[in-house]
Specification:
The chain is an alpha/beta fold. One of its GO terms (molecular function) is pyridoxal phosphate binding.
């Protein structure tokens, strides 16, 4: 068997040798000793007996990077091609490949890997090692596999310049690009950590990124979460010791102090080179890279995360691009977010979050998910949780509260039709703000939640946009839209864009701002409101004022919201994480119905955000105008954003308008905008009428099928009373879990 054992620098230093080294250094340069000891400790504790295993395609720079990493850690460096394969075979790798052929070469290479053993080393794999499952399982047992992810175009350019002749799988009938694409599935299967490597990144920089990535992998303590209402200076020792991680906040949803969870150290940042490396990537590939950076592998390993992302976006979206960007007119582009199963942007989070939740929760407890919706969330969350495995459905149930008379007829039909054996919709005789506030109050009612846990073994959790996990998939599509414009040649990377979003609860807008913080060159985020324009007035004046305001029902019900929950996260950010100030502002809003930002904070806010609103009449006029000139039908929310974008953009850069829902969901308003005199009240008839227009985009497939199958089924309706809602929750738990 081929063995490489760790040599002296990796062994534990004996007490005598440590004392000798200590005396010599202390007598010469005490400060230098502290620096050297810190360096020795960090590098050796980083590696220990584990190997760092570098994996990637040929031309990724594994050998060069491995040598630099080994030098920095002062440990053995092993190149599988040169030090193992060629030593074992007594011939070059290219000669072996020519001698035995592609299939036999992979088997021989795998056998050599199975006989290999090392510890405390940096190992550079061959480009084809990951294609042998048994060999990879063997070497992975004692190592951290680091995938050097280099764009395919960069690899092809490197290999062409080097004139490499030993690419396993390359034959006269197969292109190099096909070989590299085929291999990606094996790299994705085995890696623990991904390191993005652009075309012009020096090997020294890549080596530093590898070390940083390994440190992150080994230290989940770096990625904890805090409440927007917690104060760093005022936190107790008990609070500091009780750290919360991604999996905790996914389950808990809302902080115990009523605040919202945010990452303590902020979001990760990508370099321009790293973003550019994703220009050629698919939507699913972009999602995996971005979410890997935001979710620590101790919470969800990269391989499991990849499986979840593939499940969420692989077959459940009708468009292969998942979130395509379409040119509308002039400098305006539409980000189409309605190709999911329930026809709204909520599908991006709610096809993913149920699987994240099911993975993170302990197996010893049942969970009831509470959701409040102003329309689109309801059907999306019901559909998402209905796609869980049967074993997960037995321990995870969901209840969706929505304003009984505050959603469109088709939205209501969807929510009722999407009910499953573990998921129910309850209409509330009030508005969305009551539903959302009620859920927050239930979560912070420790007597009630404790009773449910003790009596029924059931914990409550949230899947609304207040849940941190809901925001992450939205960051992905804002970043992806920018990369698509670069890929289409509309802009070069680094050129700014504006983004305009129909905004109610501020989650979608916050995700766009987070994408900007992570390195996407977004200039202005434009908030578009309907006549419920509290948020617009706040952005313009710094005064959030609910006094005397009543919710107005509009043709764009998803933004019929007066209390924008995710605004709290944004204010926490621009206030330099001053939890005490955030607590003060939102307590004042709750108790007095208003608050006012300090002048300095308003200045910061107005550097990031611009806001406008439009009436229902202007919304319908925009739908008619766009259809008349382009043949494209906007939904009512996208039309609100279009009107505001027309008013506020300065036309010096492209503007991406978030098309948050398919027009099919709001058929009566659309037919009215198209000036149809008589409108049948049956939702299915309305869709058939719309389909006769042969407009773009076509009628939504999933929505049509749902209405065909279900029609208007039964659902529960309750009064706007906290005790009534709590009674409903207890009854549902009894019926499902007991």
């Amino acid at each position: 068997m081929f063995h490489i054992f760790q040599y002296q620098p990796l062994r534990l230093i004996t007490q005598n040798s440590l004392s000798s080294m200590y005396l010599k250094l202390m007598l010469s340069r005490p400060v230098a000793f502290a620096q050297i000891w810190k360096s020795w400790f960090s590098s050796h504790s980083l590696l220990g007996k584990k190997n760092i295993i570098l994996m990637g395609p040929p031309g990724a720079g594994k050998t060069t990077t491995g040598r630099i990493v080994g030098q920095k850690l002062d440990c053995p460096v092993i190149d599988i091609d040169d030090d193992v394969l060629e030593t074992t075979w007594n011939m070059s790798v290219s000669e072996k490949l020519q001698d035995v052929g592609y299939e036999e070469f992979l088997q021989e290479e795998g056998k050599a890997l199975l006989k290999f053993s090392a510890s405390g080393s940096v190992i550079s794999l061959s480009g084809s090692n990951p294609m042998h499952a048994a060999g990879m399982q063997h070497i992975k047992k004692n190592g951290i596999v680091v995938y050097l992810d280099v764009p395919t175009t960069v690899i092809m350019s490197r290999l062409k310049s080097k004139q490499m002749d030993r690419i396993v799988g390359l034959s006269p009938g197969t292109s190099l690009k096909d070989v590299l694409q085929f291999r990606k599935q094996f790299y994705k299967k085995w890696f623990d950590i991904r390191v993005l490597c652009g075309g012009d990144v020096a090997a020294e920089v890549v080596a530093e990124k590898v070390l940083d990535a390994v440190k992150r992998y080994q230290d989940s303590e770096l990625e904890t979460f805090i409440s927007t209402r917690s104060s760093r200076s005022g936190r107790s020792a008990e609070e500091d010791s009780h750290k919360l991680y991604f999996s905790d906040v996914v389950i808990q949803g809302l902080a115990l102090d009523g605040g919202l969870f945010v990452p303590e150290r902020g979001l990760p940042k990508f370099t321009a080179e790293e973003w550019q490396g994703l220009i050629e990537a698919t939507y699913i590939e972009r999602a995996q890279v971005i979410l890997e950076k935001c979710i620590h592998p101790a919470d969800i390993p990269a391989s499991k995360l990849a499986e979840i992302i593939e499940t969420a976006y692989g077959e459940n979206f009708s468009c292969s691009k998942v979130a395509p960007v379409r040119h509308l007119a002039g400098n305006q582009f539409l980000l189409e977010l309605f190709h999911g199963p329930t026809a709204s942007f909520k599908d991006f989070a709610l096809q993913l979050v149920p699987h994240l939740f099911a993975y993170c929760i302990p197996r010893s407890c049942n969970y009831l998910i509470l959701v409040a919706t102003s329309g689109d969330t309801g059907s999306a969350v019901l559909d998402g949780f209905s796609r869980l495995h049967d074993t997960d459905k037995q321990r995870i149930a969901l209840v969706n509260f929505f304003p009984e008379d505050g959603v469109s007829p088709i939205q209501k039909s969807q929510m009722i039709g999407c009910q499953k054996e573990n998921a129910w919709s309850v209409g509330v005789k009030s508005d969305f703000d009551f539903c959302q506030t009620a859920i927050k109050q239930i979560f912070t009612n420790s007597d009630f939640t404790g009773f449910l846990t003790v009596e029924y073994g059931t914990a409550l959790a949230a899947a609304n946009s207040i849940n941190w996990a809901r925001l992450l998939p939205q960051i992905v599509y804002h970043a992806s839209a920018y990369l698509d414009l670069v890929h289409q040649g509309i802009i070069s990377f680094g050129s700014p864009v504006d983004i305009c979003i129909p905004t109610g609860n501020f989650g979608n807008m916050l995700a766009a701002f987070y994408a900007k913080m992570m390195g996407i060159p977004i200039r202005k985020c434009i908030c578009a409101s309907n006549e419920n324009n509290v948020l617009t007035e706040f952005i313009r004046t710094g005064v959030y004022d609910l006094r005397g305001r009543k919710l107005i029902s509009s043709f764009s019900p998803a933004v019929d919201i007066l209390k924008s929950s995710n605004l709290e996260r944004y204010l926490h950010l621009i206030a330099n994480e001053d939890g005490q100030l955030v607590t003060q502002l939102f307590n004042q809003l709750e108790n007095q119905g208003h608050f006012q930002l300090r002048k300095d904070l308003l200045g910061k806010l107005q550097q990031d955000l611009v806001a406008g609103w439009c009436s229902d009449e202007d919304c319908l006029a925009a739908i008619h105008s766009v259809y008349s000139t382009t043949g494209y039908i906007l939904d009512t929310h996208t039309a609100v954003a279009k009107v505001v974008a027309d008013r506020l953009q300065d036309r010096t850069c492209p503007i991406i308008i978030s098309s948050t829902a398919h027009y099919s969901k709001f058929a009566p308003a659309i037919l009215r905008a198209l000036r149809i005199a008589e409108i049948n009240q049956n939702p299915l008839s309305q869709l058939h009428l719309l389909s006769s227009y042969s407009a773009l985009p076509p009628i939504h497939w999933g929505l049509l099928e749902t209405l065909k199958k279900t029609g208007n089924g039964d659902h529960q309706v309750c009064a706007a009373d906290m005790s009534v809602l709590m009674s409903h929750i207890e009854t549902l738990i009894q019926n499902h879990f007991m």
